[in-house]
Specification:
Belongs to the precorrin methyltransferase family. The chain has helices spanning 21-27, 41-44, 67-79, 98-107, 120-127, 175-184, 214-220, 243-254; strands at residues 5-10, 32-35, 52-55, 58-59, 62-63, 83-88, 111-115, 138-145, 163-169, 192-197, 205-210, 227-231, 241-242. The chain is α/β, with parallel strands linked by helices and 255 residues long. The N and C termini lie far apart (66 Å).
Length: 255
């Protein structure tokens, strides 16, 4: 490991046993660890106890430290001769802003290396026994951000439907808008969807329903972040609890 270098390290979806060997080695030796709020406490516990920890945790729609500030921290600490680990939930290059941080380091002539992590989509889906591809159900997968500027202006047509799987990050708060958007783009209201909440962590839940019920189900079940939404027939291959079926049963009993 080089002094004066930045390592963008994927911490995976939560379970510390899903760390790569290289990630575990780096966090145990880092001088400075700049970490997100999504990094599980069990992963933080594996870090070098003598390291200096800098939290740049994000709250809903607000960064405690703006991205430009994070970039400045990485560059400053590396220039001071430290082994700097930028520790991120999931994978640095999947909605992790790793690309922006790598660019900032290169522009400042700071050595930078990316250590990939198990993404939330892969880790959470595996735990729920939900195959993102399946010869009988899907031969294509798309990843989108459900909470970003200009959501309604984005063209998602063709990303969900027969033979395709759509994985939506950061979509809990905008689930109703997402439902309306997909249905307007031609996706069947009866398309199966799953919500994977706190995947690989304590209290993880995997819940499935139909697209038309997505927003209501999230409210009924009090789903919180972190969570991802998966749309497609592969959902039916999973072990996710069928909340629409359970709701129908409850309604029958009440009648």
């Amino acid at each position: 490991m080089e002094k004066g270098k930045v390592y963008l390290v994927g911490a995976g979806p939560g379970d510390p046993e899903l760390l790569t060997l290289k990630a575990a080695r780096l966090i145990a030796a880092a001088d400075v660890i700049v970490h997100d709020g999504l990094v599980d406490d069990a992963v933080i516990a594996m870090c070098n106890a003598d390291a200096r920890f800098i939290s740049v945790a994000k709250q809903r729609s607000k960064h405690s430290v703006p991205q430009e500030g994070i970039n400045d921290i990485l560059v400053r600490e590396a220039k001071a001769g430290n082994i700097v680990v930028r520790l991120k939930g999931g994978d640095p290059f999947i909605f992790g802003r790793g690309g922006e941080e790598a660019e900032a380091c290169r522009e400042a002539y700071i050595a930078v290396e990316v250590i990939p992590g198990v993404s939330a989509a892969l880790g959470c889906a595996a735990e729920a026994m939900l195959p993102l591809t399946h010869r009988d159900a899907a031969s294509a997968v798309s990843f989108v951000a459900g909470q970003c500027k200009g959501l309604t202006d984005q063209d998602w047509s063709g990303l969900a439907g027969k033979g395709r799987t759509l994985v939506i990050y950061m979509g809990v708060a905008t689930a109703t808008d997402i439902t309306e958007k997909l249905i307007a783009d031609g996706v069947s209201p009866d398309m199966p969807v799953a919500v994977l909440e706190r995947g690989t962590r304590q209290g993880a839940r995997a819940i499935r329903t139909l697209l038309t019920d997505l927003g209501d189900m999230i409210v009924r079940e009090k789903v919180g972040s972190p969570a991802i939404i998966i749309v497609g027939d592969v959902v039916l291959k999973s072990d996710a609890q069928d909340r629409l079926f359970a709701l129908a049963q409850e309604t029958e009993l009440m009648q």
